[in-house]
Amino acid sequence: MIKTYTQHQKAETWLETYRGKRPVFACVLGFTETGLIPNISAAGATPEDRKYTAIADAEFLATGVNPNFPLPPLVAGASPVLISRAVIAAQELPLFIFDAGLAIAPTVPAIVLGGKPANCLSTGHALPIETVLQLFVQGLVWGEKLAQSGAYVILSECVVGGTTTALAVLTALGIDAKDKVNSSHSTCNHAQKWEVVQAGLQNLSPQATPFEIIAAVGDPMQIAVAGMAIAASRHAGVLLAGGTQMLAVYALTSAIANHQKLVWNPDAIVIGTTRWVAEDATAHTVDLALAVGDVPLLATQLSFANSKFPQLQAYEQGFVKEGVGAGGAAIASHLYQNWTQEQLLSAIESQL
User: Fold this and answer.
1) Phi and psi (nearest 5°) for 309?
2) I need a surface site. Which of 7, 153, 191, 221 has the fewest CB within 10 A?
3) What does the alpha-carbon distance between residue 6 and residue 298 come to, in Å, rounded to a whole number?
4) What is the pLDDT of residues 38-92, one digit of tens each?
5) Which long-range contacts (CB under 8 A, 24 or more apart) does 301-310 make?
6) Domain that includes residue 143, residue range
């Protein structure tokens, strides 16, 4: 149920180390006005819907119901939070929700990191540098704490428009990510993303530091999770739960650690996603992972082909694919309690 796509030996070592061990699940919420660009994302059918995606997903992740904000209508499919919630609830994983920078306050208890929503990356002025540094320091603090709460830490995100900010950050870090990133659309909107990224990067200095890159074209989740990953890796395993966005976070983490000469343990970190991301025919996820560095890319082999719900079958047509740590949660379900395809599908369908 878990397949490795890159760095196979390191991946197998990591999996053996944490097999049967209970993780802690953290979800870092953020907002970027990039997500309001028409058609940039399918994580909410309209720009207005996308304002509430992270709030609704957090509500369902924490409680399994949505009394305040319904899960947003999607272009097709159902929110990936169903997958994460199914695992967290049934396997009783400790859950921490963080507000790294939201335009609307969460309706469930969340740890506020002192960030703010990002401007559209096309402005080249996404976040104040002071906010970036604040989020990084808070990430370091919470990474230490999370590492004390489980054998390994699952770091997940909910940021609409986040694959576009990921493309911008990867490009600014010197990684060839053009036409390689994923999207919640069934066919990735590479040209649209690249146009937005080019606008944002046009005035960025080639000598920009990692912090300056986030300030220019990033989002608040990226820098907070980079801090968490660095600190947590010193004491525990880290599963960066996501596809393109977590590849960007890993690249950022590595760049910051090198730039600031920080102690961290890259061998403790893997990236975990879904096979819909890893095998996305309209992206090049494996090539991107290899370009980012020697981090293992893992994916759950969860399938919705035999689901009785068309909202889940839509994943097999390339819609949604990932989000809210869905792939990481599924990997944890196989690793911690050895769930089969049938057990995982049943738990997800019961949530739906």
Assistant:
1) -105, 125
2) 191
3) 8
4) 999 988 888 999 999 999 999 999 999 999 999 887 878 999 999 999 999 999 9
5) 301/1, 301/2, 301/3, 301/275, 301/341, 302/1, 302/83, 302/274, 302/275, 302/330, 302/341, 302/344, 302/345, 303/275, 303/341, 303/345, 304/345, 306/345, 307/345, 307/349, 308/349, 309/78, 309/349, 309/352
6) 2-351
Report the alpha-carbon distance of residue 259 to residue 274 in Å, rounded.
Answer: 31
What's the number of domains the chain is made of?
1
Distance (Å, whole) CA 234 – CA 238: 10
| pTM value > 0.85 | yes
If you write DSSP's letter for every residue of 133-201 in order, what string do you get? HHHHHHHHHHHHHHHTTSSEEEEEEE-TTHHHHHHHHHHHTT---TTT---SSSS--HHHHHHHHHHHH
pLDDT in tens, 160-194: 999 999 999 999 999 999 999 999 888 889 999 99
Q: What integer pLDDT is reported at residue 53 of this predicted model?
A: 94
